[in-house]
């Protein structure tokens, strides 16, 4: 008997080795996780602004209230939360696959066989009740417990559960990445709204200034100091500025609706003081070191979990080449009449079956799944490296943007001051007939444009502040 066991064991071992030798050899690509030691034009610093909570990073109470509402009501974010629940349920499903399946059941049936058959002849010679034939039709009752279990020899089922769990973790990071983007979108739209309101206030001031000048021109025309041409040119300028006012009002409505959409509500006035827009202080940004992106950026962490799941998928696909072992067992009672159903040990029945199977024919399908898993693993590697590279470039671009915008804002501020003085000078010279009306018009137009550009530059500075916080991976924590 021992020799038979050894022979059977050797046979199974030979079968396993033979099948294992048929598994195609593929090389898995390893991800490059190396990053530069520091960012350009910056010193290495372990302190990172991404670690700051968004309530600490943004100081405007109106903006904080909007973000807080959006994190509860935003529909897209709630959709992602449901995707997380789906992924969590898939983990439970995978976990149940490698555990034994136990059930309870009952069965009842009847049949009648022909007398001139083997079973019919046996029933006619009944030994349970001598002299009595089997009843026709013959009933059969059965009740018991049943169990089945696929033995996870090659950890295929456990790897499938681990891959599902890893993808669940990836959905969590996807949710975090969406939170980061949502906060950044709301902050950007909010600063856009303040900039538009500030521009609208400037336009309204200019309308008053230009209207006053127009009245002066009309008086000068009556005294023959200027012609009708000058009056019409100033009227056209006032009308153009008024038209700009309505265009800005439309942009304000659209921006407010964009914020309301992100917040998850139909309507609502967005509070904010446009007069304080230019006084918003830009805090200094601490970049930390590039390697901290691997920890702070949710999209990088999501790509890393997806890569880990892809590596597990290769092991799952490889296990299809190996034999599988299944066990089935059952115990219960069986009888042809209810009176004998629970009579032991005569009505007791049980069974245990083991199944060992291995693929020998049509292995192309298994190879295809294996090749697909390997290709997807390479895709996951490239996606991970692309995500890391993109994150690094985003930080570098925003770093340069902050520096260049600071210099640009300083120069534009000087330009606005110079043109504001030029408007006053041109008005004085025009009243004393020492300047042509075209000089007044051009100076007012340039002053208005310069103020618009100054506000736009300020908004770009605030956008850069938001974008570098997002690029560093801030907001979700």
From TrEMBL:
- Keywords for the protein's UniProt record, in alphabetical order: Coiled coil, Lipoprotein, Membrane, Palmitate, Transmembrane, Transmembrane beta strand
Q: Which GO molecular-function terms appear in the entry?
A: efflux transmembrane transporter activity
- Where located? Cell membrane
Coiled-coil positions: 438-465
Query: Could you tell me which Gene3D superfamilies the record lists for this protein?
Result: Outer membrane efflux proteins (OEP) (1.20.1600.10)
Transmembrane regions listed in the UniProt entry? none
InterPro entries under this entry? MdtP/NodT-like (IPR010131), OMP_efflux (IPR003423)
What membrane topology is annotated for this entry?
Answer: Lipid-anchor
What Gene Ontology terms describe where this protein resides (cellular component)?
plasma membrane
| Full protein name | RND efflux system, outer membrane lipoprotein, NodT family
Organism, as annotated: Fulvivirga imtechensis AK7
